[in-house]
Amino acid sequence: MVDDDVDLLEMTRRTLGLSITELWWRYFAIGGMSSELEVEAILLHALTPTSEDWDLLAVALNERSSELGDDSYSIPYSSDPQPPQG
Amino acid sequence: MTRVSEVSRPIVERQALTERAFVELVDMMIDDLDVVDLLTVLSARCIELLGVVDAGILLADEGGNLRVIGSSNEVVERLELLQVQTEQGPCIEALQTGTLVAVADLSSTSTWPLFEAECASAGYSSVCAVPLRVRDRTLGCLNMFVSNPEPLSIADVTLARALTDVATIAIVEGQAKRAAATREAQLRKALDSRVVIEQAKGMMVVPSHIDFDDAFRRLRSYARARRLGIAAVAESIVTGVLSVEDVRLP
Q1: pLDDT tens digit string along B75-120?
Q2: Confidence check on the interface: ipTM exceeds 0.90, yes or no
Q3: Do residues B58 and B90 make contact, with C-beta atoms less than 8 angstroms apart?
């Protein structure tokens, strides 16, 4: 995952009004194994997320968006086809 | 046998009332604390023990907004509200500084003109505001009104502080208990969700000849396509509402 991708996680978290603690609870509830501090470090670019962590954070954020009425599931998962470059 | 003399009887009675007040406040900590009840008892006991005419309490809510709680009458409630609205008055000052604010004769000062004028028309000559403070947190303020233009004695102020401290500790303890209960419920919910997702993955692995990561990808894909939560899909599999064969990658 590149920096821009991590920015998408953090931007979405902020747009949804989720605190890092709230995001961590959602991530933990679906199987996340990293601590809240590690999740925060990922969002601050201090840690590079594994594809598992990325997917779990993306699910947590996409599900929260859906709860609020936005079903676009805008954060892609690691297994999604990459958009064409250029 | 020593008899209580007529001179010492008021002292003994006051001591008994003081002890009862402390026991009453501490006793309220045992069960689920009702903060309004606690502060009503605090103001009532201060009136009973300290010779003040009336008392009112301001308490900050979770958002930091001040609320009037436990006023002994409507006049005091108005005076407390006036302080909140104008952001001026002994209670506000006690809240801001975290220290006791006492004015022995309100007619001799002009620090808070509106408040002082309202006090004068209500017949209050003196005021003493005691912050509800523990460590570096100030949660609210007890405001006591006296009709004579005289300061409370040092003994009375000390007692008011002690009663207020006990009430404040009870409030903080109640907040900590509620926070722990909320966290426990949150943890239980999260663990239930994790368990059901793991169960569903386990049920998918063998018949579908896939590993756990693939099982999660299938759950995620199924949930996204139907705008469902992963935990809800997992629950459907575990309870047999949804067949493992139905949860495939597109």
Answers
A1: 999 999 999 999 999 999 999 999 999 999 998 988 999 999 999 9
A2: no
A3: no
Q: Do A29 and B198 touch (CB under 8 A)?
A: no
Ranges of chain B whose pLDDT falls below 50: none
CB within 8 Å: B189 and A28? no
Residues in B touching A79 (Cβ below 8 Å): 217
- Could you tell me how far CA B140 lies from the centroid of its own chain? 9
Please list every residue in chain B whose beta carbon sits closer than 8 Å to the beta carbon of residue A21: none
Query: Per-residue b/e over B40-77, b at no fewer than 16 CB within 10 Å?
Result: bbbbebbbebbebbbbbbbbbeeeeebebbbbbeebbb
Provide, as residue numbers in chain A, all residues whose Cβ is less than 8 Å from the Cβ of B200.
none
* pTM higher than 0.95: no
- Count of pairs with CB atoms under 8 A, one residue in A, one in B: 35
